[in-house]
Amino acid sequence: MVVLKKILDFYINSSLHVALSAFALVSMTQYFFGVEGDSSVAFFAFFGTVVGYNFVKYDAIARLNKTEIKNELKVIVFLSFISLLACFYFFLQLSWESKLSAFAFFGLTLLYTLPFFPNKQNARNWKGVKIYIVGITWVGVTVILPLLEAEIPFTMDVLLMAFQRFLLVFSIVLVFDIVDVKHDDIHLQTVPQKIGVKLTKKLGYLLLFLLLILEFFYTNNHQFLPFFFKLLVCGTIAVFLFFANENRSRYYASFWLESVPILWWLVLILTGFKNLSGL
C-alpha cells in the first residue's frame, strides 16, 4: 500500500493526472465536432499541461532555491523537461493560427506565475483573478485551439461550447477553493473566502444549472441523450460540491474530482454516442 500511495502521489504531483484530463477534454471537443485523425492538439495539450502546471507549482522552489530539492522533485523536473520537448514537437505540427493562439494561452500561464512588474505580485496572487485565468486558459486549450486547428467556423455552437466549458471549469475550481479555503492566502480572495462556503456551493449549483440550460440553445439537432449525459456529469460535480469542505483530503479534488473529465471521456468512447453537442 505504501508503494501504491507513492506512485499515486507522484502521478498527482507531476501533473500527469490533470494533463490526462486536458487530453480528455480536447478529445471530446474534437469528437463532438466530428474532427477525426488529428491527435496533435490533444498531445500538445497533454504535454503542455504537464509543463505549465509543474512550472506554476515548482517555479518558486526552482528560482529561489528555498529548500533542498528532493528526489521526487528531481524526477518531476526531468519529466517536465521531456514533456517540454514533446510539447515543442507537437507544437510544430500545428498551423500558424493555432501556434499564435497557443502563444497567447502560454502568455496567460506566464502572467499567472511570474511577476512582470517590479515589486508586484504575479496574477496568481491578484485578488479574485485566479479562477478566471484558469477558466479562460482551459477554454482556450480544450475548445478554441482544437477547433481552430481543425478549421471549424466559430459559430454560435462553438461559443456555446466555450461558455459551457468555462462554467464547467469554474465549478470544478470552486470545489478546489472550498477544500483549500483554510490553506489559501487570505489576500487571494477566492470565492469561498469572499462569500463563504455555503454561498459558494449555491453558486456552483447555479452555474451547473445554467450549463444545462445552455444545452437547449445549440443550433444543431438536439437529442435527449446528450442532455441526459451532461446531466450526469453536472450531477457528479454537484455531488462533489455538496460534500466539499476544508477537512477533505488532498485526493478529494486533486484525484477524484479531476477524474470526472477522464471518466466522461471513457464513457463516451465505450458507449459510442454520436452527434452530441459538447461541454
Automatic annotation (TrEMBL):
It comes from the Bacteria. Keywords: Membrane, Transmembrane, Transmembrane helix. The chain crosses the membrane at residues 12-33, 39-56, 76-94, 100-117, 129-148, 160-179, 199-218, 224-243, 255-273. This is UbiA prenyltransferase family protein.
